Amino acid sequence: xxxxxLTNYSSGICGVWARVKEEANRLSKNHEVMVFSxxxxxxxxxxxxxxxxxxxxxxxxxxxxxxxxxxxxSWAFEKEAxxxxxxxxxxxxxxxxxxxxxxxxxxxxxxxxxxxxHAPFERTGSxxxxxxxxxxxxxxxxxxxxxxxxxxxxxxxxxxxPHLLNLGLSEKNISYIPNGIPExxxxxxxxxxxxxxLFLGRIAPIKNLEVLIKSVQYIENKKIKLxxxxxxEKEYSNFLKKLVKDLNxxxxxxxxxxxxxxxxxIEKIDSARIFVLPSKSEGMSQSLIEAMARExxxxxxxxxxxxxxxxxxxxxxxxxxYNEKDLAEKINxxxxxxxxxxxxxxxxxxxxxxxxxxxxxxxxxLGP
Length: 368
Fold this sequence. Notes:
The structure is a single chain. The strands form three sheets. An eight-stranded mixed sheet has the order 3-4-2-1-7-8-9-10, sandwiched between helices. Helices cover 38% and strands 20% of the residues. The longest helix has 18 residues, at 129-146. The protein folds into two domains: 2-177, Glycogen Phosphorylase B (Rossmann fold), CATH 3.40.50; 184-352, Rossmann fold, CATH 3.40.50.2000. The chain has 14 helices and 16 strands. By secondary structure, it is of the alpha/beta class. 39% of the residues are buried.
């Protein structure tokens, strides 16, 4: 079959792109797969090259016009999509214009079309009032009309289902296919653990990193270091670095460059005693489930995405999202050495996300 994947980004560090890249690569073993995206680089200025090939997967990038926020944009791909004439279109990220265009293309060429939501719900606290109004009107006047036109809507989390049902979808039109974890996270030899706490992801306001930085002053172990690894949004990064300086924590907090290679990413996760994800909101955090696969004690903020994955005290710890003292208390608890059972439970709880198992579900859905 010919399969077309549509996503806003195919360059930079992006959770949606991580899913699309892995999915496309694995599907390309038995199918002809192309990825279409904007030419923007997630988390950076500038643009990516217009065409690229990763393994057997061909990527085409289109000039984009920003319509508001970081990721809400328009990029015209319809002519190239019709030319490719896929049997199946997989459109990623609900509430984005390319998913609506995917419906039009699919109708014209009589292709099947699937929407992967990427969990955009439960995020009112991370958007401004204007953004929340736009989201409300989109859901009520666009989502309710268009969602049922997809052959299937794929949720990446279980907690999305009530939201989708509330938008008028029937249960038979919803399938749960979460993000996957590459096999290497379960099989690569473990590297030496060091006296550090790790955050791995974009240095962006939604990640709520000021709370993590403030928590360091309350950690009992005064020799432990915090390392923040990922691409930086410059204005926010400058704010965080000033905060570190103001709190006299410059010798305990490290900002490191992003990591793109799987082997190096695993080694970085292994180097930490604790992995912390303090986000205001998430969809399904790739870095979180990967850290759990490496048997890390993970500590995450109290949002739907994290509590969907973590049972507090069993396979990880949950803290009150904006409370740095509560986070420090959980870090102290994790450093006490009395929670090693959590490590085993963390890995056990994410084994179901092994990409080999996820691919079977996708292939079954797509059919022969």
